[in-house]
Every structure is written in C-alpha cells, then in structure tokens.
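Recap quiz, item 2
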Amino acid sequence: MGAIITLSLLGILLLYLGLYKAKNALLPVTLLGLLVALGFEVSEWGKEAAPVYHGMVLFDHFALSFSMLCILLTALTLFLSKAYFSAISNNVAEYYCLIVFSLTGALLVSSYHNFAMLFIGIEIMSVALYILAGIRKKDLYSNEASLKYFIMGAFSTGFLLFGITLLYGATGTFDLAGVRQYVIDTQQISPLFYGGILLLLIGLCFKVGAAPFHFWTADVYDGSPILVTIFMSTVVKVASFAGFLRLFDYVFGALNEFWTPVLLVVIVITLFVGNISAMMQTSFKRMLAYSSIAHAGYMLFAILSLGPNAASSVFVYALAYSLSSIVGFGALILVKKSQGSDQFLAFNGLGKSNPLLAAIVALAMFSLAGIPLTAGFIGKFMMFTGVMGDYHVVLLALAAINAIIGVFYYLRVIVHMYFKTAEEGAETVVMPLNFKAVFIIAAILTLAVGIYPDCLIGLF
Amino acid sequence: MDHIIQHIQGIPLNHYLIFCSIIFAIGVVGVLIRRNVIIIMMSIELMLNSVNLLLAAFSAYRGDASGQVFVFFVMALAAAEVAVGLAIVIMVYRNTKSVDLESLSKLRW
C-alpha cells in the first residue's frame, strides 16, 4: 500500500514543482519517488499476504512482483525522457505527473482484490494515458491517436462494467474471494454469471489489445509520441495482463471449460492478425505496434493453461517483451531524430555508423523473435510448455508457424542495419548517455534472464 | 429508503435486466455506427448509465448496499473520463474544425 500512496503523493508534488518552475528537479524527484515506492514494495515482500482495507487490495507475491516490474519499466522509460518532453511543450511537469498517476493505476490493477479496485485502477491508468497520447496538441497524428484511444478505452470500460454488474447480480458481492466462493459452492451457476465472464473477457481483451478487439492498437501506438508509446506498450500492457491473469486464475479457474474455447479463438486470431500485419509494414513503429498484438497473443497462452506456472511465465514473458520494446522504441527515437523517418530504411547502415546501438537493437530483435540465449526465448519456452501440458497441440502448431513469421520480420530490421548501406550524406546517429545507460541495462537483463532464468522463476 | 426499495421491487428483476440490456445495446450500436464524436460520447454515457441502473436494481433486490456504492464510483469516474474526452474533442476541433471521426484518418484503421 505504501507504494500506491507514495506514487499518488508524488504526482501531486510534481504538479507543484511545475507550478514553481523547478524544471530541473522534475526528473530526479520522480526517480527518487519511484525508488521509494520500489523500497515499499520490497519491504512487503515475504510477509503474510491477506486482503487489506476491507478486502480491497491484496499484496501477495504476484501483485508485488508485477508492481515492481511496472515501477522498473517506468523508471527506464523516464530515463529516456530527459529533453524529450521539453522539446514538445513548455509544461513538462504535467507529463511526469500523468505518467506517475498512470503508474499508480497500474499498481492498483495488479493488486486488486475487489472489482471496484479493478475498475478504478483501469480508469486511473487509462484516463492519464488519453491525455498523454495527445501531448502534441498541434500534431494531427497525436490528436487522432488520443481520440481513438479515448473512444475505444471508454467503450471497453462499458463492457467491463456490464460484466462486473452481471457478476454482482449473480453473486451479490464485488469481492474476488466471495465470487470465487460462489463458483466453488454453487451447483447451478446462474446464466448471468456466464454472461458476465464473456463481457469481462471482451473488456479485458480490448485493454490488452487482443484481436478481434485490437484495431485501435496500431493507430494509437503509431500516432502517440514514441515515449508515450513505450509506456503504453510496456507498463500498461504488463499491468493489464497481471489483472487479467489474477481474475481468471483466482476466480474463474474452476469454470475453464466454459471460457477456454472462446479464449482459444481469440488467441489464434490474435497471433495471425498480429504477425501477418506486422510482416506487411514498412514502418518500424507500426511493425512494433503490430508485433505487440502478436505478443499479447503469446501472453494469453498463460491464461489458457493457468496452473502454478502461469504467473511466472507471464512475468518472464512480459519482462522480456518490455525490455526489448524499450530498446526498440528507444532506438527509434534516436534514429528518427537524425534521419527524420520511422521507416525501416532509416535503419540502413546503422551497423557501421553506430555499432553499439546496432548490436543492442539486434539483441532486442532476437529477444522479441525468441532466439535462444535471450529472455524472449525463455518466455516463449515457458508459454509453450504450459500449453503443451494441456494438450492444445493444434494451438502449439499454429503458434510455431507464427513464431517463424515473427523471426522473418524481426530479422528484416537486422538486415537493414548490417547489410544495407546508408544513403550518401546521411547523418550518423548519436547516442546520448542516458540512452546508452538504459540500453545497456536492458541488454544485460535480457541476456541474464536468457542465460540464467531460474532467478525469476522461483519468485512465485 | 424502504419506500424506494419497495417501489423498485415492484417491478420484476428480469424486466430491469432486459431494459438495461437494451439500453446497453443501443449504446454499443451507437458507438459503432455513428461518426460524430459527440454522439459517440453520448452513446458511451448510455452504456455506463444502463450499468448504473442495473447495479441499483440488483442492489435493491439483494438488500446489499455495495452495489449502490459502486454506482457512485462509476458516476465519478465517468465524469472524469468525459471531462478528458471533451478536452480531447476541443483539441481536435481546433485543428480540424470538425468533430467528425472521418476528418481524422491520417492513420489507417
């Protein structure tokens, strides 16, 4: 709980710093606040977990580890933000404040124990993001991203709420433990309850960007400023998956015969739509956006197979995917700044002009594609093993085909970096110190998890 | 309060359920087929308010106050959401002089 309170206060503090024109203090104060929040999370680790505040939130290892991951990813994102926001607008404090508020929502979503907290968490997380997506007020792309994200977000919230209401109608409680008890005790489960599960599934699929509810994802990721896209595709996605998994694992686990077929269809469509659309792109940013849809499909495997390993496999997968996304989008910021384009062509000759950057981007692409010795491979491996244990052989075969499609378009980036030459007179890409630090941290973590995954698997 | 609850219970629960589902469906269809952003926002409000009504009905039938408390959460957050949404619409309007979704199609859907 300490972390959530710290972050809420930090957001208000940042607004005041903005008011008193203390621009240089913003980034250090934010990072310090995140560090304090992380400290609170660590201090709660290993204690007896029981729902607190009248059963509203539960800080078990699941919630704590996902919260820590969210805080870490936000910190890495913010490291990249130095001089990024101030180039866009004069009111820098608001952006830090909104990101911190959004993070608070993400923490609530990963530690809720009552449907009210799930709803509030998702809203806090998304409302801040609607504004962040539209940071560039004069830019039509940014406007469009913001508007689409808002409409789709509010629309999906409607489904989520109707689902929660139907569950309440069937069970008479919003408490997860109460609803779980209902599922276990009742012989004849009310049809309202089944309707509620389906609507919640739709609402959550919207939030994680799974097909056929994915159509907003690519446009929003593409139109938003890159730094906001990083935040959206990492922190928000991780938190949404944590909430998704907690709900289906803890509450609906006993009814999996009912929702497994629906989820199977969603996963297969997501994988194919994500991968095939990503393959067709010429823009690096849109390719990453579509590939994030495909990765959502892989992460849904864990919800399909549930069981004791589901949490750790989602955690490892989300960590691997997020680190690589940060590197990918971060590199795009630098490339776009010097070449003025976010197409694949802008990466031509990067292997010669900036070997370190090219090597780290290559590592990130290998990790996203799931090549061994990277974190992405371990994530995919855990997901596939989980599904194999349940004998979803057809799904496994389809997933393997998709993994191969994935390798194809990730390698295209590497081909552009190493085997094509840059145009004459193109500016070389420079890598500022803060980018270098973030990239190296991400690369080291990717390799460490890839070579020695046991350190994470034992967390839960 | 008892008086109101008796009134609410005077109508069978199924009627509330059907009524709210219809309003919700109208909202969903409105979001999907209309292109004017303001009307889309009104449709979203319709969806949220059908949820509120249904929550109040369930709450009255079960004699459990938590459903009505949830309605307050929904109202508060819907207000926050609409405030941000309208701000976004104004921002879009300043740039395009239109509140039509079609006016913004730089990015392919």
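The CA atoms of residues 14 and 33 of chain B lie 28 Å apart.
Chain B has one domain: 2-101.
End of item.
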